[in-house]
Design goal:
The protein is an alpha/beta fold. The protein has four helices and eight strands. 11% of the residues are buried. It is found in: Cytoplasm, Cytoskeleton, Microtubule organizing center, Centrosome; Cytoplasm, Cytosol; Endoplasmic reticulum; Golgi apparatus.
Length: 190
């Protein structure tokens, strides 16, 4: 273990730790061990008998100034709790595949009306992207899924928004009324 002992006018510090006074008896014992060329007991306990490399810097002409705290990024692991979002295992499709998905769409679009793109993440990990008019209904999204993937015709599923997580139960609402323009919709099996 590498430890840096900095000697200041008004005390000493280890690495970038707090100032320790020369007048404290514990600190005096620590420094006496260092003067004798021994590793202080405190550091021996810290490294559990391992090797300690003690470097010293002389700053006795300066007063101790508390160092700024360094940003240390979180290095642990996170756990997602209670999310309705399924884990997507498919690889992202290329823009060409997305365009092909839109071009092969069984949804009739009125070009004189405002339109939106909806991305649908299917329960099997795939995704569909489709253009809809703002006046299309949630039922039209369900029908589009079934037309695109006939295997889901006999499967009971619900449609859910991603943020905030909300089940789209009233399928008679238009996409604009349901406030799901340009969003991602999740298909969840019941």
């Amino acid at each position: 273990v590498q430890i840096l002992l900095k000697l200041w006018r008004n005390g000493f510090s280890l690495d970038d730790g707090e100032l320790r006074s020369y007048s404290d008896p514990t600190n005096a014992q620590f420094l006496e061990s260092v003067k004798r060329g021994e590793i202080p007991v405190e550091l021996q306990r810290l490294v559990h008998g391992g090797q300690v490399n003690l470097d010293m810097e002389d700053h006795q002409e300066q007063e101790y100034v508390k160092p700024r705290l360094r940003f240390k990024a979180f290095s642990g692991e996170g756990q997602k709790l209670g999310s309705l979002t399924p884990e997507i295992v498919s690889t992202p499709s290329s823009p060409e595949e997305e365009e092909k998905s839109i071009l092969n769409a069984p949804v009739l679009i009125d070009d004189s009306m405002p339109a939106t793109k909806i991305q649908i993440r299917l329960a099997d990990g795939n995704r569909l992207i489709q253009r809809f008019n703002h006046t299309h209904r949630i039922k039209d999204i369900r029908d589009f899924i079934i037309q695109s993937r006939p295997a889901f015709a006999t499967t009971d599923f619900v449609l859910v928004t991603t943020f905030p997580n909300k089940e789209l139960t009233d399928e008679s609402l238009t996409l604009q009324e349901a406030d799901i323009l340009n969003t991602v919709i999740l298909q969840q099996l019941k």
